[in-house]
Amino acid sequence: MFTKDYISKDYPAFNAGDAIEEANEIAREFGYSHIFIKKKGIYQGAISQSFLEESPEGPLSSLEIHYEKFAVLDDNNLLDTIKLFHTFNANVVPVINKEEQYQGYLSCDDIFNEFSKYALFSENGAVKIVQTSGRHYSMTEICKIIETNNGKIYGCFINAITDDYIQITIKFNAENASSIDETFERYGYSVVHKYYDDEKEDLLKDRFGFFQKYMQF
Predict the structure, then answer these.
(1) Is-contact 7 106, C-beta < 8 A?
(2) Which of the four pLDDT bands, split at 50, 70 and 90, describes residue 202?
(3) Which tens digits make up the pLDDT trace of 136-170?
(4) What mean pLDDT do residues 84-99 have?
(5) For residues 154 and 124, what is the distance between their CA atoms, to the nearest angstrom?
(6) Which pLDDT tens digit goes with each residue over 108-134?
(7) Are 133 and 202 in contact (CB under 8 A)?
(8) Model confidence band, residue 206 (pLDDT cutoffs 50, 70, 90)
(9) What is the 3-state secondary structure (H, E, C) of the chain?
(10) Is the dihedral of CA 76, 77, 81, 83 positive or negative?
(11) 76 to 5, 109, 110, 132, 160: CA distances (angstroms)
(12) Most buried residue, 39, 53, 121, 140, by most Cβ within 10 Å?
């Protein structure tokens, strides 16, 4: 998953002397959140398209103090781009080489399309969020709990971490997900959320429903 294998090159980096109006027009045409600026071939930074809309006429260099300094190296992993999309509220991220020359870009759609092929997202299965203290956390133990209950793990990741606890999201396939809940509890994990049909829970709800109807007679 090296960045260089997913670079698109049809969106240009503008020279610092190019007109703001021209850059804004192309950004609108592509539907991207930012334009990228270079000077003598070296990447200088990015400016949001919404900021360009409100800027007076002139060269891009007149906006230099507003350049946002973000980019990803072409030999980085695709995962390195995710934080940049979020931090800079961007749907496009520039790619540069070690000499800071603009190589192309990655779009949000390209990244999501690539990750959608992974079993964590493409396979049907149960999703569970478990919580435990940070000191107790062990990914090996979590995988063992799933697999000893005849489950198959599609993926897992840490979605929250504090001084007091850690939460882990797990996607898996298992015939009896409720037995996995019980095993987690025996190992000191609490199940915070679960997204699947729990047969035991449904049975209890049905029985309680029958009990309520019985009491009405």
Answers:
(1) yes
(2) very low
(3) 778 899 999 999 999 999 998 888 888 889 999 99
(4) 94
(5) 9
(6) 888 888 888 888 888 888 889 999 987
(7) no
(8) very low
(9) CEHHHHCECCCCEEECCCEHHHHHHHHHHHCCCEEEEEECCEEEEEEEHHHHHCCCCCEHHHHHHHCECCCEECCCECHHHHHHHHHCCCCEEEEECCCCEEEEEEEHHHHHHHHCCCHHHHCCCEEEEEEECHHHCCHHHHHHHHHHCCCEEEEEEEEEECCCCEEEEEEEECCCHHHHHHHHHHCCCEEEEEECCCHHHHHHHHHHHHHHHHHCC
(10) negative
(11) 10, 18, 16, 32, 24
(12) 39
Q: Look at the chain and count its residues.
A: 217
Question: What span, in angstroms and rounded, lies between the C-alpha atoms of 217 and 212?
Answer: 9
Average pLDDT in the chain: 86
**Residues 14, 60 contacting (CB under 8 angstroms):** yes
Whose tokens are 């980019």? That residue is 71
Rounded to two decimals, what is the model's pTM?
A: 0.75
The token pair at 201 is 């829970």
Q: 181 burial class (0-12, 13-18, 19+ CB within 10 angstroms)?
A: buried
User: Strands of 42-48's sheet, edge to edge?
Assistant: 13-15, 34-39, 42-48
